[in-house]
User: Fold this.
Amino acid sequence: MRIGVVGAGIVGLAVARRLAQIEPRAAITVLDKEAAPAVHQTGHNSGVAHAGLYYAPGSLKATLCRRGIGMLRELCEEHGIAYRECGKLVIARDASELARLDEIERRARANGVPGLRRLGASELRELEPHARGAGALHSPSTAIVDFPAVARALAGELAGAGGEIRLRFEVAGIARRAGETRLRSAGGDELAFERVVICAGLQSDRLAWLAGGEREPVIVPFRGEYLRLVPGRAGLVRGLIYPVPDPAYPFLGIHFTPRIDGTVDIGPNAVLALAREGYRWRDVSPADILDTLRSPGFRNLARRHWRMGLRELHGSLSRRAFVAAARAYVPELSPDDVVPAPAGVRAQAIDPDGSLVDDFRIGERDGMVMVRNAPSPAATSSLAIAEYVAGRVLARDG
Assistant:
């Protein structure tokens, strides 16, 4: 059997590796338009291995995140990849946020997150001396990890099993004929497969449309910008510090993220990117902007949340405003304590009514499995997503 996987990010590589494990006679090829694997969301990931605090119990996110983090930890141990359980504090700034913190705790306990502790104001300072808040939820098993190294390990295992990663192959055409799916590159090359998996992240809606799927949900790219603590101030933070998310708004909010290399990032905000792969303000694609603006889902989202959008834009343009948002959790922070850090772009799927697709969304069509929405915690969940997807790819052969 010939199986093609479109997308060499962490999810696509994990799917290909899993298929090679359970169907060793299959010829498996991963295709990607870039010159190297894991260039986009995987390569710009914040490096957090999520324990499963926020996700609706019973959802794919909750189920696959809880299974995935254990599988990820085992893979890192096997390959000697850095993985550190630094823990996470979700901090309620004041009494008005404690009820929302209660709901996060309820979900986390329903999801089986281990070691949870509810802390008061003085107790949270024992863990994070420079942080302040009315209360917090502590998740000691939340970790930080080197996801690009994980992707390299997956690629190495795939190659060892006889799989191929074909780079600089941008899929420009998809056709189903005589029981085969033919993938045509922008350069005119064509490959035929009996099964195809699309794990294309920022391009997933376009490829699903090429494959004959629905145009919606559309992917809208949101750039997440970060600041980084200067080395002399990295001691302000010991572990991960997160806000209590406001359910009225679609994004989590600014938080503090220690990284495996010892740096500490603050962010992200969420500003509309002017290109699908727009990591800087100067990255502009008129075609991508037009795609976004003509989407009913984006227009409905913008109508509903334009005030939040303006606040995020202000934080993008003003370092002081960005730092002020972070000072709500670490009051000692000042604009002199930070420097710019690399940004990432989130591939956010949006339904026509303007609602953000919250759960993982994976569909099937004519011998193809399409990962239509896989935002955070997709990297944490990647090995469990791979199990789930591979089972669907091979189900009809069982």
The longest strand covers residues 338-350. The mean pLDDT is 95. Residues 296-317 form the longest helix (22 residues). The chain has two domains: 2-47+148-217+358-397, 85-142+220-350.
